[in-house]
């Protein structure tokens, strides 16, 4: 089922930099009426405010705080599209001394944060027959040892995204699960991924995937390699109507 961002109101968590910022710019370039910039530090969106003026509105939000997200949903009750982009990645293997602490913090943001956002905006998205876009990762389907906890948190968020697709689908709300590989962002640089694709590959991919009515998006070259191997499983298991 096709879905366009043109003339829509969108909200993007973690909108101040990296993939989130690129999504803001792509949405506006493709005709979004307004974009809410949901960030922990409102001062961090000044560049976007200067560039886009009244087309953007900054709102303070912390996906680790349920009350903050509930207030966010009340402030942005006119949204059609919610993009849950905010996330964290730390370096921890299963044998790291701080593995439990790191996994707890990543789950809180990357998995529980998704639940907080989805629940807070559920009624609005249903009323507006909108869309939820969740930034997952190729790390949701493949574990890399030195970021095992991050992979676990993204696997959890991907599992929850599948559940949200089914429950929101009953309400006429579209759900898109986005699985980039390493991208040229601060997080990518921290992980040592030099020469990674630009964040616009993700943001422009989201536009196209919404228009195509897809559930999965593997936007960049590396991600597409994962998609080629994963597609058969996704078609026969993830996208299939199976009952338990």
UniProtKB/TrEMBL annotation:
Which Gene Ontology MF annotations are present? oxidoreductase activity
Alphabetized UniProt keyword annotations: Oxidoreductase
Q: Does the keyword Oxidoreductase apply?
A: yes
- UniProt keyword Repeat, yes or no: no
Alphabetized SMART domains for the sequence:
PKS_KR
Which domain of life does the UniProt lineage start with? Bacteria
Into which family does the record put it? Belongs to the short-chain dehydrogenases/reductases (SDR) family.
| All copies of domain Ketoreductase, residue ranges | 8-186
What is the name of the protein in this document? Answer: Short-chain dehydrogenase
**Pfam families linked:** adh_short (PF00106)
């Amino acid at each position: 089922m096709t879905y366009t961002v043109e003339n829509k109101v969108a909200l993007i968590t973690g909108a101040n930099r990296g993939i989130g910022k690129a999504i803001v710019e792509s949405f506006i370039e493709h005709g979004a009426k307004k974009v809410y910039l949901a960030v922990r530090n409102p001062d961090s969106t000044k560049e976007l405010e200067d560039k886009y003026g009244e087309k953007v509105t900054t709102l303070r939000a912390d996906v680790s705080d349920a009350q903050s997200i509930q207030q966010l949903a009340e402030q942005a009750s006119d949204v059609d599209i919610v993009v849950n982009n905010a996330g964290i990645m730390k370096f921890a293997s299963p044998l790291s001394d701080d593995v439990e602490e790191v996994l707890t913090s990543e789950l809180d943001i990357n998995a529980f944060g998704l639940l907080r956002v989805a629940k807070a905006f559920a009624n609005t998205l249903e009323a507006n027959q909108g869309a939820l876009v969740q930034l997952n990762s190729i790390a949701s389907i493949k574990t890399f040892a030195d970021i095992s906890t991050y992979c676990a948190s993204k696997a959890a968020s991907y599992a929850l995204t599948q559940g949200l697709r089914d429950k929101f689908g009953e309400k006429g709300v579209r759900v898109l699960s986005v699985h980039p590989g390493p991208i040229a962002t601060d997080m990518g640089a921290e992980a040592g991924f030099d020469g990674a694709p630009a964040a616009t590959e993700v943001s422009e991919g989201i536009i196209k995937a919404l228009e195509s009515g897809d559930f999965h998006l593997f936007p960049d070259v590396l991600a597409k390699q994962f998609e080629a191997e994963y597609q058969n499983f996704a078609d026969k298991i993830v996208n299939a109507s199976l009952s338990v």
